[in-house]
Write a structure and sequence with these properties.
Number of domains: 1
Helix content: 25-40%
Structural class: alpha+beta
Strand content: 15-25%
Distance between the termini: 33 Å
Number of helices: 5
Radius of gyration: 14 Å
Strand order of the largest sheet: 1-2-3
Number of strands: 5
């Protein structure tokens, strides 16, 4: 996966872009809003499911979780802005709204 992220998700896909930006992250989206990632350097894994099955919500949530876990440098975070703050476009291509997490990931002390 790390050697050829394109084969996991194709050109411009969230999984491809995350693994290209951060080779230590192994990530994969599934059907109906399921997303998982392995973070071997942190000894962690992450899995999530979006109730309505929307992949764009799963990608945004996964991006924010990975960011909150410290997986991205400032440059990597900038590179992944389209997934951290995705826009919803009208049929005419204008920004109509955006997707963002409804809660902040908090870790116990």
């Amino acid at each position: 996966m790390a050697a050829e992220p394109f084969y996991v998700n194709g050109t411009g896909g969230f999984t491809t872009e995350v693994m290209a930006a951060v080779p230590s992250v192994r990530a994969k989206g599934g059907a109906e809003g399921v997303y998982a990632a392995a973070l071997p350097e942190l000894g962690l894994g992450m899995a999530l499911k979006i109730d309505d099955g929307a992949m764009r919500a799963a990608e945004c949530a996964a991006a924010h979780i990975l960011c909150r876990l410290g997986c991205f440098s400032a440059a990597e975070e900038q590179r992944l802005q389209a997934f951290l703050n995705p826009a919803i476009k009208t049929d005419a291509g204008r920004d109509a709204a955006g997707i963002r997490p409804a809660a902040v990931l908090a870790f116990p002390d």
